[in-house]
Amino acid sequence: MPTRLLTIPQAAGLLAEHPETLRQRLRRGELTGVKKGDGPRARWFVTEKAIDAYITRRSTR
After folding, report:
1. Where in the sequence is the domain holding 21, given as residue range(s)?
2. In 3D, which of 44, 60, 42 has the Cα closest to residue 7?
3. What is the pLDDT of residues 10-58, one digit of tens each?
4. For residues 44 and 61, what is the distance between their CA atoms, to the nearest angstrom?
5. SS3 content of the chain, % helix, strand, coil (to 5)
6. For the chain, how many structural domains are there in total?
7. Do residues 22 and 13 touch, judged by C-beta distance below 8 A?
């Protein structure tokens, strides 16, 4: 089954946090994502698998 790419608002909704907080986590490397495009118009995408892995890491601390 192919992995679904989520937009920042979709992923932020799953984590119950603000989209900008999620972008900061991506920039710091706390969450794995894919940046598509170049320059200021580039957009981040996150896989459902990356969200699950992040939740698992946070819950085992």
Report:
1. 5-59
2. 44
3. 999 999 999 999 999 999 999 999 999 988 899 999 999 999 999 998 8
4. 26
5. 55, 20, 30
6. 1
7. no
Helices (H), the chain: 8-15, 19-28, 48-59
**Is residue 26 a contact partner of residue 44, using CB atoms and an 8 Å limit?**
yes
Rounded Cα gap, residues 2 and 15, in angstroms:
21
Measured between alpha carbons, how far is 13 from 60 in angstroms, rounded to an integer?
A: 21
Q: Say which residue the tokens 């118009």 belong to.
A: 41
Q: Which amino acid is at 61?
A: R
User: Can you say how many angstroms the Cα of residue 58 is from the centroid of all Cα atoms in its chain?
Assistant: 14
